[in-house]
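Q: Structure for this?
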Amino acid sequence: MRALGEFLTGRRFRDAVLLPVISLLCGFAVASVVVVLSGANPLDAFGALFEGAFTNRHAVPETLIATIPYIFLGLGVAVGFRAGLFNIGAEGQFYLGAVFGVFVGFNLHGLPGIVHVPIAFLAGMFGGFLWASIPGVLKARFGAHEVITTIMLNYVAFLLTDYLINNKGPLADKHATAPKTPFIDATAQLPILLPGSRLHMGLILALLAVPLVWFLLVRTTIGFRIRAVGLNATAARAAGISVGWTLVTVMGISGALAGLAGADEVLGVSHFMPPSFSVGYGFDAIAVALLARSNPWAILPSAFLFGAMRSGAGFMQLVTGVSADLISIVQATVITFVAAPLLVRWIFRLREVPEAPVHIAEVGGLGAAAPGSAAPTTLEETATS
Amino acid sequence: MSSVFLALDFQQLFRQFDLLSLATLTIVTATPLTLAALGGVMCERSGVINIALEGIMLTTAFVGFVAALVTHNLAVGLLAALLSGMLIAALHAVLSIEFLVDQIVSGTVINILALGITGVFYRTFLQQQNVKGPGTLPVWRIPLLSDIPWVGPIFFRNQGVTYAMLILVVVVHIVLFNTVWGLRTRACGEHPLAADTAGINVKLVRYVNVISSGVLGGLGGSYFSLQQIGNFLPGITGGRGFIALAAMIFGKWTPIGAFLASLLFAGADTVGVRLQYLGVRLPTQFLSMLPYVLTIVVVAGAMGRAIAPAAVGRPYRKA
């Protein structure tokens, strides 16, 4: 009991539990202001959000379905953060994963499900891996800042998908009236987990991914390199770690996880792919990872929370007319509070500064400095409290 | 025989291409890019990264349009866009200068916030009703100058925001390289500790520069809703704020360089659109990719390396 008491008043509890909860409450507070300004009642709006996420018929399975991509994508973005990389391109990698997954899904025939599904997943991972490797290599080789390159590759991915599927593109279903790919074979569809709902086996896979990523980060050499580069690239280089290769690897892993999410969405939920089918999962994943402070285990509650918001937002828009975009306001506020320990200290008059979850290393002026190139640092600039 | 046909085809293509209208269109398309890139230059030269320019342009495009719609006055709309730009930039300044939030995270927050706010209010106020737009800014022909062949139509038959852009390229250049303020700005971006030792108020300089990037971004945002289409659509900025940052990098953090780089991106955009009209057998999506791919190539430094201000991205705290 005493240990529990110490934990509840300790710094770890505050940083890992209290801070995210407070951030979330502030997020809803800011969002209610916006709801009031738009002429609706925040209680009605958030009530509908809750109903849509938890109490309606099929609400819980649907919330879990929305949680699955957030787990994969959140893990992917978190792995990037651990190496000091800001992967804003999860959305594009998600698209490429879906394209590769759906391609294998409707082109291979006669395989048993136990073979077809893994091949489709691998293809999806490969798609995401490929797309994320571009900014990885550009960063490692030329020092191109990944924030700009990944955002640009998102737009390229949207256009590429549009070309492939829209207007009788190479992957379009020639017999369908609406632009979409053909349906994937039954053997590639994920089995349903909960009879009578759409909840599919992808949830198990996502739950398995969490300990795997944790193990990778904390118990393997690659994970050690990733964390070393994230903490101090110059020191890592001095210790003989190839910073460039590590960055490429991290982007690859991050992209593969995003690709997994894309493939899962196609194999488990839609079973085909329209030209634009994501509702911004890849961007939400940034908030998921930040709220979890890039801790793989904490991704679970964080992803569930965003899954609930995402699945409730549609119902809220339907019932109260408040746009589902409202949840991005909650997200933005949450990120601000989690990323601004000084702000929290200032608001709540704390004496010590909570730990900041993100240090994006090697910023060095968007696109200029190669990783690890000596940037002038003064004592004043590195001191944080 | 076939080669003759090809040559004829090419001539025809060239005529349809109409270089004059292409050049005019390029200047117009470069307007928001240049303005946002100038904002980026002001910001980064003082040591603060600003990837929020996309969100600033999106929000100000919306605010400017709504203000013009409500008051039936484009000037009020323009003013509202500038003021809201200052406000959002001030948020970025407070978060990154005062509360030492990672500048990239702070910028991302603002971009997400911009999507949310414009999305919610668009749905509430604009989507359902058939709003009659406030129109677009008038084209001003400068007497005499607009009659000069080539130069006239390209530079002197434009709308307000484009004129402002052309003037501001010069103004920002002079401010940055010929005034005390500019020297202080650059000092804060290169070596804030030295600037501080010399008695410069680093925080103040950074605040002013970040907020002025909001004014420039606000002008860029008003281009979309008040000059180009006289309406607002969600996501209307389409990543131009990020392309502008690439233009800033390619322009080596100088106003004139950023302007020329913006012209290059705008040119790629314009040519892409024109080729679509001409029915080139390349899928339209690939032509639309041009500016984005070009941005990646530029950021990767394939066309010459650029050196960023040394202290950009690093918060400064007085010892």
